[in-house]
Structures are given as C-alpha cells and as structure tokens.
Design goal:
- With 272 residues, this protein is α/β, with parallel strands linked by helices.
- It has one domain: Queuine tRNA-ribosyltransferase-like (TIM Barrel, Alpha-Beta Barrel).
- Helix 3 links the parallel strand 3 and strand 4.
- The termini are close together.
- The model has no long low-confidence stretch (mean pLDDT 91).
Amino acid sequence: MPSLKLLKNCWKKWTGPRWFTLPPNSIPWPWILVNAHRPRQGLSYIKKYKEIIELVIIDSGIERFQNPKNRDYPSGWIERLVDLYSRVKRIVGDKVLVSAPDVPADYPSNDIRDNIEKTINHVVEAISNYRNVRWLIPVQGRYMQPKSFIKCIMVYDALGITKLFRYFSIGNLCTTKRVKIIIESVNIVRSLPPTKYPHYFGLYLGALLFVKNKIDSFDNVRYTFPTVYAKKLGMNYSCKNKAQRELYFVHYLKRILLSLDSVTNLLFEEHL
C-alpha cells in the first residue's frame, strides 16, 4: 500500500477534478464525503485526519429514495443537515460544504415526476432560513433528459441564486453509465458562469475521461465494489474486511489517476 508520504505527494501533484470519498480509516485523504444518513463513520474519520483535510462535503442523503415509499425528505431534514454541518465545522472550521436537499428521479423503482420542483423548494427554504451555512446548490433534472437541467438553472437565475452562490452540484446521474448523457448534462450545467464551482454527484468512472476538464470535483464510494484488479484475483464481490477495503481503494485511485492522465500515476507504479 502507498505510504503516507506518497499519498501526500499525490495530493500536491493532483491535477483535474478532486475526488471526494470516505476512504478506509487507515488511509489519509484530504477530500471527504460525509453521508447525512450515517454520519458517525465520517465524523470519526475527519476527527482523526483533521490536520490534512482540505474540504468536506456533506451529501443530503439521496439514497433514501431507493425506497419507492420515500417521495420526499422527512420533516426537519434541513435542520438535521444544518446540525451535522455545525458538528463538522467545529472540527475543520470553514472547510465544509453541505448539499441542500435534492430529490432525484434516477432510481427506476421511484420515478418522482416533480423532483425538480421539490429540489428548488428545498433549496429556497434552506438558503432563506440558514444564510450563514456554506450551501452546495444541487442542479436537478429528469432522468436521462439532459435538457431538463435547463429548467432548474433558469429558476435559479430568476431567483438570483446563481449570483449569490459559488458551489453547484450536478444531480440525477448517479445511476447511469451512459457517457453521452453524462457529457451532455455536464455541458449544460457548465454553462453556468465560469466563476462557479461545479461538483458531480456519484460520477461513473468511465465518464471521467470525457468530463474531467468541465467539473471541479466529483464524489463516489464505488471503490468498495469489486475493482478490475480485484476481479483478476478472483474477488468478484464487494470488499468485506479492512485489508480488502484498502486494496480496493488504492486500485480505484489508480484508475482515477489513469483517467486524469496524471503524472501522479507514475508514483504509484512501483507500489501497486
């Protein structure tokens, strides 16, 4: 496994969009994703590595919509996110963003037809009631319909949100592997002013090569699934223990570096 020194060199030499994730607890990483549904592990991690963390993103917990019975967030969810934001801020200071609650439509068993409208309503409520929070503004669309993102952006423009906020995220594409759809969607959201910071929720790694120059960061925890390297070793299953989590993480990281065509990848060759 790469040493701490090697990983630090990786961060310093990193080029391209930053990868936010929650690594194995034994591996330090500067860009951290905290799950609003299960924050305990994320909070423990950032306490351990607070000295090296550069930025934390708290996601709003959209996996709840995998259950077709859930059509929106429960009452008080924004307050829950703000509370979690405050807890993280006490650890890392201002190096934290929290996603306003967004409602996806990309889970096949839960096609929420008014997901754009619900997302906009949540964003307006969040930014109106909690002005001192560093919000990540989600741009939502309809499933497999890139042009639907335009509606969300136009409403944000009309409400002045695109002027007031810098950080925006691209939602509703976590479950697709259709690279053409991903590229078209990213191009639309990239039409925001160049001073904005676009983040991609749950990017399919196969699309990274094609959008790496159009986003500032992305997130996922897909390294826990069987990597190409793991499959070659006959490990065609999700990681089940500490050693496998470390192995899967490092090899997923290498795939990211290869997609970014990063010189940092050369540092890993002798370690993998």
